[in-house]
Design brief:
The chain is of the alpha/beta class and about 220 residues long. The protein is built from eight helices and seven strands. About 30% of the residues lie in helices and about 25% in strands.
Length: about 220
């Protein structure tokens, strides 16, 4: 029997109107984490980070995946309503992990302290192909508008990932075909991270995939 999806019923409140609600891309990422449950537990991560947590569904679910072990699970988002929504979601989670939230872009407020220490990094980026002008044009657009190739936000993070991950650390990334997943995998390979497509699913007009990247322990 699979793990339960975290309760995000509080998102119906008007104060969370700008928060990205769990959708097929969210659930695909949950499935990828659950598929890797044995490996993640064997890894015994101590610091996990979700960038752009939105509802907090993924952070809360990772806590369940790691149970009965615990970790520090840090969730970041630039939307203060998302920080508050995440706080409510993880408060209802059944987990031994410690959850913290931070309002910041990526991990900018914490990158010096997290450098080389993140064991599990997760990002469901704004991946929709849009004009560049739509990127960050509103707090709602920040959750989905990805600009050229749907990659403008992601491409800002990519160079930072290798330095943030611990030896053996993992990075889970949500993409669509228009983002050119194979180019992303090749780009990370040039930075020293091995990557592969671990799960794919069709959702309406979108072909979603989860890419997983791993940093060498050497």
């Amino acid at each position: 029997m699979g793990l339960p999806t975290p309760d995000t019923g509080h998102l119906r409140q008007t104060e969370y109107a700008t928060v990205y609600e769990p959708a097929e891309d969210t659930y695909l990422l949950l499935d990828a984490l659950e598929n890797d449950r044995e490996e993640l537990q064997a890894q015994r991560p101590t610091i996990c980070v979700e960038i752009g947590s939105g509802s907090g569904c993924v952070s809360a679910f990772l806590g369940q995946v790691l149970s009965p072990y615990g970790a520090l699970i840090l969730s970041t988002d630039i939307n203060p309503a998302a920080n508050n929504a995440t706080r409510e979601t993880v408060a209802k989670a059944s987990s031994e992990s410690v959850f913290e939230q931070c309002r910041t872009r990526f991990v900018q407020a914490l990158d010096d302290r997290l450098r080389g220490k993140i064991d599990v990094l997760m990002f469901n980026p704004p991946y929709v192909v849009t004009p560049s002008a739509e990127v960050d044009s509103t707090i709602e657009a920040a959750a989905w508008a990805g600009g050229v190739l749907g990659r403008e936000v992601l491409d800002l993070l990519i160079p930072q990932v290798p330095a943030l991950l611990s030896p053996g650390g993992r990075f889970y990334l949500v993409v669509i075909e228009q983002n050119k997943p194979e180019d992303i995998i090749a780009g990370f390979a040039a930075l020293g991270l091995a990557g592969q497509r671990v799960l794919s699913r069709r959702a309406g007009i979108e072909s979603l995939s989860i890419l997983r990247f791993t940093k060498s322990v050497l």
